[in-house]
Amino acid sequence: MILVSSCLAGQTVRYNGTHSLNAGIRAEVEAGRAAAVCPELLGGFVTPREPAEIVGGGGDDVLDGRARVIEISGADVTELYLRGARLTLEKARELGAHTVVLKENSPSCGSAEIYNGAFDGTKAAGHGVTTALLRRHGITVLSEHNYRESLNHSTKGERQA
């Protein structure tokens, strides 16, 4: 079993009330080989919500107290992101998931790129809070851009069983 971002499975949970449907990921959920999770909703957010970015670093910096997650209005929502990350880790452990596919660029889910914290649309190398926590606990985190090969490998044994 793997975990995937709910928005990639077609659920309208993104900050602006949209989804980022990936048909392959939705098929894995529908087949029961993947479970959908939204770290931001687990953390206590609602949809829609203000856009947020990590200011002062990346996900590891947030975990270590050196950076914050701030909404475009200036509200500090770091604790909600940390809570969502912890609850996502609990869900991954509960399901025995060793691979998680999360939405790129998100301050929670980004695995290679996140927005730079200036709210100007510029992306920078880095990863989100949930990705950082999962990786610290030995869980592989991929984006919708690089999941396919790993997904096929991680579910191959389940399909043969």
Strand content: 15-25%
- Total domains: 1
Could you estimate the helical fraction of the residues in percent? 25-40%
**Helix/strand order, N-terminal first:** EHEHEHEHEEEHEH
The shape is: globular
Give me the Rg, rounded.
15 Å
Count of helical segments?
A: 6
The number of distinct β-strands equals 8
Any low-confidence stretches, pLDDT <50, length ≥5?
155-161
Strand arrangement, largest sheet?
Answer: 2-1-5-8
Main pleated-sheet profile: 4 strands, parallel
Let me know the average pLDDT.
93
| First and last CA, distance | 13 Å
Structural class comes to alpha/beta
Polypeptide structure, described:
The protein is an alpha/beta fold. It has one domain. The chain is 35% helix and 19% strand. It contains 6 helices and 8 strands. The strands form 3 sheets. It has a 4-stranded parallel sheet, sandwiched between helices. It has a two-stranded antiparallel sheet with strand order 3-4. β6 and β7 form a beta hairpin. α4 packs across α5. The longest helix is centred in the middle third of the chain and has 18 residues. It is globular.
